[in-house]
Amino acid sequence: MSHLTRRSALSACAMLLTAASTLAGHAQPIAASGPIRLALVESLSGSFANTGEAVFRNIAWAVERVNSRGGVRLPAAAGGARLLQLARYDSKGSSEEALSALRAAIDDGARVILQGNSSAIASVLIEAINKHNQREPDKRVLLLNYSAVEPSLTNERCSFWHFRFDAHADMRMTALMDVLREDRRLSQVYLIGQDYSFGQAVLREARRQLASQRPDVAVVGEELHPVGRVKDFAPYAVKIKASGAQAVITGNWGNDLTLLVKAAREVGYDGMFYTFYGNALGAPAALGDAGVGKVVAVADWLPNLPTAGSEAFYKSFRQRFPDPRDDYVHMRMQLMVEALAQAMERAASLDAVAVARALEAADVTLAGQSGRMRAEDHQFQQQLVVGVMDRVGAPGVQFDVEGSGYGFRVVRQIAADQARMPSSCRMQRP
């Protein structure tokens, strides 16, 4: 899944070209003022292009859903019913390019920025938006974050203009530990992560929680590696195997995870992997049978969640994107777009301050999954689930990942109230 298929690429382009006409078959009025422009600022080329394209599919699908029911319904004074229009801006995995993309998006009329696949990039965007909104109050923008989970972004560095729809790294680690602490076979673990704010935060929190919940478990290795630049993880895998660790804890994502687990399989490492993102983007296929019962992943939602609403939701995604290589769907991204549409309608305006205040009270449900925004820090509160990799057809594994023949059986559901963590945010509001 490292690249879109030609069919998928054409489909993606078609989504952009037809976004403004989605209502044609629904006999809904289209406001003369035009669509509401959303800007996706993401890695659409380079090492993490697959993650950016996967996010684009999710958000395009969510936009289609809103538009199919008439778009965002605003009062006549605000333009009446308005469609959402999703535009793409390639950050190329670079903070500098992301800032250029932000400026271009604002110049093009976007007032909502969507980003997530890098906490480092999210950090620079938040800072830039804080400054921009102060300098140009008539062109204020909001940043909706679906994946940048470095904890400080909704703690000491929180911003009125930033809303996070993913559980932050400490919340995800707590959910993983809820399963890991019960594995009495573990006596040694290895920590490995990407060398930037997020990866550092994951390893730091892993050490802290191990010390408090499993003081009997020794950390026998700790490694940080360059983000998106390692092509051969064999040297890391050899060290992991030689350490004697029975488990690896990692927040790696994208190719940095896929290549790591592939290298581990090739050197014969047979320990557990406790991951943030091991349930997608090639990781299950890379491990094959070696990962059965040994890869644990935490998420806000998994396709094999045992509810009728969840099953119907996943099947509808597969109908929309039938190529199994396009299999990357995240409930939180769907809830994010639903929350934005809800906030705009409640604000009865597209003014950034009014929409932000309405978004602080967002409470959304889709396919039986619910979440609400916490106003004090703009950290979305939702359930978390933990799954274990198994063969499709095994009990609890109806759906596989990316046509690999392997899926994730849900072994733990953690309610939003249990997943909640305190915040140190001291937000400044306009």
Can you offer a commentary on this structure?
There is one protein chain. The chain has helices at 6-18, 49-68, 95-107, 119-135, 169-180, 197-213, 234-243, 255-266, 283-287, 308-320, 331-347, 352-359, 416-419, and strands at 36-42, 72-73, 81-82, 84-90, 112-115, 142-145, 162-164, 188-194, 218-225, 247-250, 272-275, 295-299, 363-366, 369-374, 379-382, 384-391, 406-414. The longest helix is centred in the first third of the chain and has 20 residues, at 49-68. It has 430 residues and is α/β, with parallel strands linked by helices. The chain is globular. A 7-stranded mixed sheet has the order 9-8-10-11-12-16-17, with helices on both faces. It has a 5-stranded parallel sheet with strand order 4-1-5-6-7, with helices on both faces. A 3-stranded antiparallel sheet has the order 13-14-15. Helix 11 crosses helix 12 (352-359). Mean pLDDT is 91; it is low at 1-32. The chain folds into 2 domains: 6-167 and 308-382, Rossmann fold (3-Layer(aba) Sandwich); 170-299 and 383-419, Rossmann fold (3-Layer(aba) Sandwich).
Number of strands: 17
> Going across the major beta sheet, what is the strand order?
9-8-10-11-12-16-17
Radius of gyration: 21 Å
Could you name the CATH class of the largest domain? Alpha Beta
| End-to-end gap | 43 Å
Shape: globular
Q: Domain count, please report it.
A: 2
- Largest β sheet strand count, sense and barrel closure: 7 strands, mixed
Residue-averaged pLDDT: 91
CATH architectural category of the largest domain: 3-Layer(aba) Sandwich
User: Would you tell me which CATH topology of the largest domain applies?
Assistant: Rossmann fold
The SS-based structural class is alpha/beta
| SS strand fraction | 15-25%
Low-confidence residue ranges: 1-32
Number of helices: 13
Q: Please provide the ordered H/E string of secondary-structure elements.
A: HEHEEEHEHEEHEHEHEHEHEHHHEEEEEH
Instruction: Bin the helical content.
Output: 25-40%
Going by CATH, what is the homologous superfamily of the largest domain?
Answer: Response regulator
Signal peptide: 1-24
Keywords: Signal
Domain Leucine-binding protein: 35-389
Organism: Melaminivora suipulveris
